């Protein structure tokens, strides 16, 4: 059971470290500590689960070892998949930098408002996404430099208006956040 706990603790320390760096906008390009922890946590978990077949243990200890092992192995597999993806999977994006905005309407916004204005249109997954939140906070810090070029920032996600309101308060954002809960705008842009 101790081996399983060590793997679990090692994995969690590396995840906390990785997300701390992410929140500080210092995400490592090659997260060696995370990769090492994923590998070692998986090996320790497999070793702990394998030892159940060799040494008899109590039912409770066996259940704990299997649950911790399953958590470590599934988390490691998920992060390994994300880390192995070399390119961002994207749809058929229908605009490029500098193109005119594709016209759209939504319950409380009309893209006609953006005509003649320089706009950075940021599509993001939602307030739950740590990467997206970190990027929106970074854009908030860049706002004075962008304003010097008359560039406004607008975020679009499938969050509800209430979720976006809470997101703006939580992360102290002043961007316009547009709710696209039915994914109409997101699909229109091919994101």
Written account of the structure:
This protein is mainly alpha-helical and 191 residues long. The chain folds into two domains: 2-84; 105-188, 3-Layer(aba) Sandwich (Glutaredoxin). It has six helices and five strands, in the order H-H-H-E-E-E-H-E-H-E-H. It has helices at residues 2-23, 32-54, 59-84, 130-147, 161-171, 184-188, and strands at 105-106, 109-110, 118-123, 151-157, 176-179. The strands form two sheets. It has a three-stranded parallel β-sheet with strand order 3-4-5. Strands 1-2 form a two-stranded antiparallel sheet. Strand 3, helix 4 (130-147) and strand 4 form a beta-alpha-beta unit. 17% of the residues are buried.
Q: Which spans have pLDDT < 50 for at least 5 consecutive residues?
A: none
| Contiguous helical run count | 6
At CATH's second level, what is the architecture of the largest domain? 3-Layer(aba) Sandwich
Helix/strand/pairing class, anyone?
A: mainly alpha
User: What is the CATH C level class of the largest domain, in words?
Assistant: Alpha Beta
- What do we call the CATH topology of the largest domain? Glutaredoxin
- Using the alpha-carbon principal axes, give the shape: elongated
Q: Work out the helicity level.
A: 40-55%
CATH homologous superfamily identity of the largest domain: Glutaredoxin
Number of domains: 2
Biggest sheet features: 3 strands, parallel
The count of β-strands is: 5
Indicate the proportion of strand residues: 5-15%
Distance between the termini: 45 Å
Task: Give the mean pLDDT.
Answer: 85
Strand order of the largest sheet: 3-4-5
């Amino acid at each position: 059971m101790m081996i399983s706990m060590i793997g679990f603790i090692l994995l969690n320390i590396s995840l906390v470290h990785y997300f701390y760096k992410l929140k500080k906008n210092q995400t490592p390009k090659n997260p060696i500590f995370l990769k090492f922890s994923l590998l070692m946590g998986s090996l320790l978990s497999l070793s702990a689960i394998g030892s159940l077949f060799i040494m008899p243990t109590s039912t409770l200890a066996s259940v704990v070892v299997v649950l911790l092992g399953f958590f470590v192995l599934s988390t490691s597999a998920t992060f390994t998949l994300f880390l192995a993806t070399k390119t961002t999977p994207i749809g058929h994006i229908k605009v490029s930098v500098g193109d005119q905005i594709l016209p759209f309407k939504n319950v409380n916004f009309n893209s006609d408002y953006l005509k003649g204005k320089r706009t950075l249109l940021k599509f993001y997954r939602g307030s739950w996404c740590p990467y997206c939140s970190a990027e929106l906070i970074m854009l908030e810090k860049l706002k004075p430099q962008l304003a010097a070029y008359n560039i406004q920032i607008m975020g679009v996600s499938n969050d509800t208006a209430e979720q976006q309101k809470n997101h703006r308060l939580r992360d102290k954002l002043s961007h316009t956040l547009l709710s696209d809960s039915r994914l109409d705008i997101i699909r229109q842009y091919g994101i």
